[in-house]
Amino acid sequence: MDIHTQADPHAEIRAEIRKLCTRFPGEYWRELDARRGYPTEFVAALTEAGWLAALIPEEYGGAGLPLSGAAAILEEIQASGCNGAACHAQMYIMGTILRHGSPEQKQRYLPAIARGELRLQAFGVTEPTSGTDTTALRTTARREGDRYVVNGQKIWTSRAEHSDLMLLLARTTPRDAVAKRTEGLSTFIVDMRTASGLTIRPIRTMMNHNSCEVFFDNMEVPAENLVGQEGRGFRYVLDGMNAERLLIAAECIGDAKWFIAKAVAYAKDRVVFGRPIGANQGVQFPLARAYAGMRAAEAIVQRGLAKFERGENCAEEANTGKMLAAEASWAAGEACVNTHGGFGFAEEYDIERKFRETRLYQVAPISTNLILSYLGEHVLGMPRSY
Ligand SMILES: Cc1cc2nc3c(=O)[nH]c(=O)nc-3n(C[C@H](O)[C@H](O)[C@H](O)COP(=O)(O)OP(=O)(O)OC[C@H]3O[C@@H](n4cnc5c(N)ncnc54)[C@H](O)[C@@H]3O)c2cc1C
After folding, report:
1. Is the CB of 112 under 6 A from ligand 1?
2. Would you state the CATH architecture of domain 120-233?
3. What is the pTM of this model?
């Protein structure tokens, strides 16, 4: 049974990604998972093949693919049993530089990223005290002559140890000195290779995600590294969120396809009480239900991608698709574990690893509650809850 998307305009991309992923089987990921290692070889292979430059326009040396092309790449990575979390951020962070960066910044960074000489994998938004309430963040960037001096702390900055650049959101005007709390925040490109006053501390988590705490102690950032206008950074970050949500949703759909394919194959093969376990409706139905959920999420994500590419507002689809896709991958994971019985818990089946990995997406980069409050307020027109 082929449960991958039929009549897909990106079928060739999918086939190439599937081929590349065969070089990185379960053993590769299991070994990294055990020691919380970074998949350097996998990321290098994707970079060399140009896949991480998918969204960089051709004039800067990238592939210039539409967002649906990037979604196909990430979905296929997940559906092949690999983990795109090691490098997915490059695809959506880069959009901020592309949309709001100066011509000099684009020339300086985008071709080098496309060539694989620079890694833009770190996105410093979340802080320990502010959490989801981003505008309450406390990291400050104070202008002093031709530079900004940054003080504060980020948390959950994924891949900080494996990135050359970080896109940083910091407050440049105090919250009580701006008319709206969304004002006075600015985005910076931080060159982490040369920055002094920067400390990175890894956080060990339930899955291998290379997330870190990052501390800024009088870290100096050249003023030329400010992206766009000072004070408009929150707006720039928001601009990229629909793309980010659609890409993460595509990864969840890939996870769901992996779980379903794995479970269906096992259900047909495993014989208990003299017949394949998949002949029992108690085994079959959760998989059929997970499949239906995945397909529904996929349809909404595809609609969101099409709207995005037409330049239409896709916030409803990006939010709904991300929530449903994260729930679909989790339901598929549950059904896959149950189908495998005890073997679902054995590391060598990769199910428990994928199960831990896909759980994240109900919390990050945006939690399900915050998506529901977006839909309640902005789509259904109910009063603001926070
Ligand atoms: C592994 C991992 C990787 C991450 N990578 C990055 C990264 O690279 N860069 C980055 O900037 N961030 C990153 N994050 C942070 C992530 O985006 C946040 O964890 C997430 O947005 C939730 O924020 P929080 O953890 O502060 O939870 P909180 O904001 O403290 O929320 C806790 C709980 O309360 C709920 N809640 C809060 N407010 C409301 C409300 N008004 N109504 C209803 N429910 C509410 C939330 O839904 C959540 O369930 C990562 C997180 C993890 C775990």
Report:
1. no
2. Beta Barrel (2.40)
3. 0.97
